[in-house]
């Protein structure tokens, strides 16, 4: 069974449409205005170096400058980006006092960004006006996030023009990846502080814009790492403790969100470097005995959580079993007839999703015809778990996902997997237990498992990925379970 809290110990260590993730248009009230510009566009640049002067022996040396973590984006419109000159300074000072870690910041234009994230780990763009990335900026930022970098867009004073422009910018940078509202089981809401609800500024409540007490962050994921964050409501004024009226978060919650963003991004830095590299499937021998077709299900949520994971599992299966079968992995939609050409479907994701009536009907027919559906909750996310169980209750009414008994062949053939080592995040959730009995659930039709489901993360293990927030099993045991599932499907 799942625990109730997780990930505090880490500290700093699919397609949803835009209309589905953005809030409704605000009421026809006067939109909040930004605070007065306090610096000119020429300020904020690093000062020119002074001539080097040798220090006398008795003179005290200045302490070393902390490493640069945040780069604030400068645009050509000083009326836009200079309105909160002390937001990053205020956040980093607060983080230094609260978390006892020390970072610095600088200011660059998008065109000056290094595509190596080590040189500018986090980009922060805050403004209230609409903006449009140039093709050159899109190319730079795309390479930057694919290399492991992270971008934070803040809608200054909660202005909808800035928010819509940020959504478009995210789409321009990663058009193949959906932008979606982060659910409360996303680790960014537990990476340092447990954030369950937030307080909004009085102006936002007075205008009737605050519709719920939940933080409103959009994200775009690369594998299971959120690489672009977009805040619908302003947190910059809270970072610098500016009392100006806006549609945004109160100071304390604005800082907690900022601190959690920093904690999540720094913990996931290595994950951005080590995953997402596809491998070639064992499919080159055209004379093999047969071809086993695997369909990865496309659904309304982020469905391709780890691009390299399943191909790596298939390669490992061939190595372990030596089975003379070549694999063909295809992306399929459940409302297409191609789904019936597959004997095996793989479904994963990190958030809730829904199937249409046609998709449910086709999946029901697929299972009745002997097809096998294998699903896993990537990162062990509760929102996916809940959605999958609800969908299966509609696909196969009256049939319940039941825990497989310990003596089931899935835990024995071709590899023993009667116990599994768990990842640190899951160990903390389970009272620091390092090893547990594996959990797999299934639905039988005519005495054969046609649905096999793991509510914890397996794919990070298949891929041998850096995944500090994954609630799941370590690589060796996750791979053994995956191989056993494939073996069962082939045998039956």
List keywords for this structure.
seven-stranded mixed beta sheet; 15 helices; 2 domains; disordered N terminus; alpha/beta; elongated
Describe this structure in words.
The chain is built from 15 helices and 16 strands. The chain is α/β, with parallel strands linked by helices and about 500 residues long. It folds into 2 domains: about 10-50 and about 60-270, Domain of unknown function DUF4159 (Rossmann fold, 3-Layer(aba) Sandwich); about 290-490, Rossmann fold. It is elongated and about 70 Å long.
Helices and strands in order:
Layout: H1 18-21, E1 68-73, H2 78-81, H3 87-99, E2 104-108, E3 122-127, H4 135-146, E4 150-155, H5 160-173, E5 179-181, H6 202-206, E6 217-222, E7 225-231, H7 236-239, H8 251-267, H9 271-274, E8 290-298, H10 309-321, E9 325-333, E10 344-349, H11 357-368, E11 372-377, H12 382-395, E12 402-403, E13 420-421, H13 424-429, E14 435-436, E15 441-445, E16 448-454, H14 459-463, H15 475-491
Parallel strand pairs: 1-2, 1-3, 3-4, 4-7, 8-9, 8-10, 10-11, 11-16
Antiparallel strand pairs: 5-6, 6-7, 12-15, 13-14, 15-16
Helix pairs in contact: 10-15
